[in-house]
Write a structure and sequence with these properties.
The chain is an alpha/beta fold and 473 residues long. The chain has 20 helices and 17 strands. A 5-stranded mixed sheet has the order 4-7-8-12-11. A 5-stranded parallel sheet has the order 10-13-16-5-17. Helix 16 packs parallel to helix 18. The longest helix has 16 residues. The protein is elongated and about 85 Å long. 36% of the residues are buried. One of its GO terms (molecular function) is ATP binding.
Length: 473
């Protein structure tokens, strides 16, 4: 819906005024608006939001209204004064302080609010303007010179518990530093998605995310608590102490937005929810100032080349074009690091020209015997199991090598989790043994029974002449 002044609009509500851009630091919301003009919004829109909030709640306390719309007391009083002058709202009760005031809609106000709700059912934090979002997204871009970057020491510390080869770790660090597209490829279960998500956790700095954005008179819901994770309470408290922030923005960690095989054409643009009259932001828009992870590349509901072609121009220009109802195009920031993950051969998915556009192509393959053994021991510790070295030797030499299954990073956690499942079902305490790991192993085989498929047990003695460390380490 478009926000235009309805019949009988409030005085001066049709004026379009935008406050001058304030000077505030990146990674911090702008200061709280002190008047309607400072919000960058029309008075008529704020009146509409106030009326709809009051309609759904009834008599409402002024601080409650502030919390719901994320607007300051002074901004709301300006809107409420205009509503009272237009006989849309009235004071329902006063307390001892200036803040202890209750408001309610008049009969005419309820009729007007019903009209507003029929056009758009959004009742929530007031939006910020698209220009305000553009400005702040540019200030808090990870490409800015003052943005923090992770170095070799930080990468080594972050991946200390992982079994990455140093060369792979350095490639990941360089890719993260470059902000160019990154392709992780290798067999299913090799840990590509886990690595990509860890890159998301390594992003430095905080970003301010708006609850909603006003785009050509339409409200776009932007903040998603599933991907826009809040800053730590300490950082949030420090931000509030440093300035009186605009509550229409929330301080978050840099986002990592993951999409998978379910990604389709319709998810790459603004989507209008006809029931509410509100647009939903596409995933790559919500990933701004962070990472967009496209998992299972090649299994989406559109060809891989078409998907990457959709992002080629935005990657070059830093700007994307989205469409609102009626075919009108709007320019929005495209400040994302694109990470692709696939278990398909890159040459089978993309031609040479597309592959050249990808900055880093990293093979995430099977682990070495030593790395697999180290990972298994660590998983045993996390599952509160004593690691039997003979069982580990049996797992690698008889189960993996005997079946031809590679030493993939997903196996240790999966096997030990299943070992716990079988023990819980039997009502016993989980314990690592050749029989238990074999049972877990064969439960992962498609269409095989555990007893028939089991290999002959292998036993080891202290004087067998070959120890696990000699064979593997």
């Amino acid at each position: 819906m478009s926000y235009t002044a309805p019949t009988g609009a409030l005085p001066h509500s049709s004026l379009r005024m935008r406050a001058p851009a304030p000077d505030y630091a990146s990674g911090s919301p702008p200061p709280q608006p002190r008047c309607v003009r400072d919000t960058g919004l029309e008075l008529s829109l704020i009146v509409e939001l106030v009326a709809k909030a009051m309609y759904s709640i009834g008599k409402i306390h002024l601080p409650v209204l502030t919390g719901k719309l994320k607007l300051s007391i002074s901004v709301l009083r300006e809107a409420l004064d205009a509503m009272q002058a237009d006989h849309l709202a009235e004071v329902a009760g006063r307390g001892d302080s200036d803040l202890d005031v209750h408001y309610q809609l008049t009969e005419g106000g309820r009729l007007r609010a019903a009209e507003f709700l029929a056009r758009c059912r959004y009742v929530g934090p007031a939006p910020v303007t698209l220009q305000a979002y553009r400005d702040l997204a540019q200030r808090q871009s990870g490409r800015q010179a003052e943005a923090g970057h992770i170095g070799m020491a930080e990468m080594a510390a972050a991946f200390a518990d992982d079994v990455l080869e140093p060369g792979v770790r350095d490639l990941l660090g360089a890719a993260l530093q470059s902000r160019r597209p990154l392709l992780l490829h290798g067999p299913s279960g090799s840990g590509k998605t886990t690595l990509a998500r860890k890159l998301g956790q390594l992003q430095t700095g905080l970003v301010a995310i708006p609850h909603a954005i006003l785009v050509e008179g339409h409200i776009v819901q932007f903040h998603d608590p599933a991907v826009h994770l809040p800053a730590s309470p300490q950082h949030a408290r420090q931000n509030e102490e440093r300035r009186n922030p605009d509550a229409r923005w929330t301080l978050c960690r840099r986002p990592l937005v993951q999409v998978g095989a379910g990604l389709g054409y319709e998810m790459l643009d603004l989507r209008l929810d006809h029931a509410s009259g509100v647009y939903r932001a596409p995933p790559h828009f919500m990933a701004n100032n962070g990472i967009l992870l496209i998992d299972d590349l090649g299994r989406q509901r559109l060809p891989a080349e078409e998907l990457l072609n959709r992002f080629s121009a935005p990657l070059d220009s830093g700007c994307d074009q989205l469409t609102i109802e009626g075919g009108y195009k709007i320019a929005v920031p495209f400040d994302v690091t694109v990470v692709l993950a696939t278990n398909l051969a890159p040459q089978a998915l993309l031609d040479e020209s597309f592959l050249r556009r990808i900055g880093y192509k990293i093979l995430v393959g099977p682990l070495s015997e030593a790395a697999y053994a180290a990972l298994f021991r660590r998983q045993c510790h996390q599952h509160a199991l004593a690691c039997d070295e003979d069982v580990l030797y049996y797992l690698i030499t008889r189960l993996h090598y005997g079946s031809g299954r590679p030493l993939l990073a997903s196996y240790p956690a999966e096997l030990l989790g299943r070992l716990h499942d079988f023990a819980a079902f039997a009502g016993t305490t989980a314990r690592l043994s050749a029989a238990a790991i074999e049972q877990a192993w064969h439960s992962m085989a498609l269409g095989q029974g555990t007893a028939a498929a089991a290999a002959a047990p292998v036993t080891f003695s202290a004087d067998s002449g070959t120890t696990l460390y000699e064979r593997i380490i």
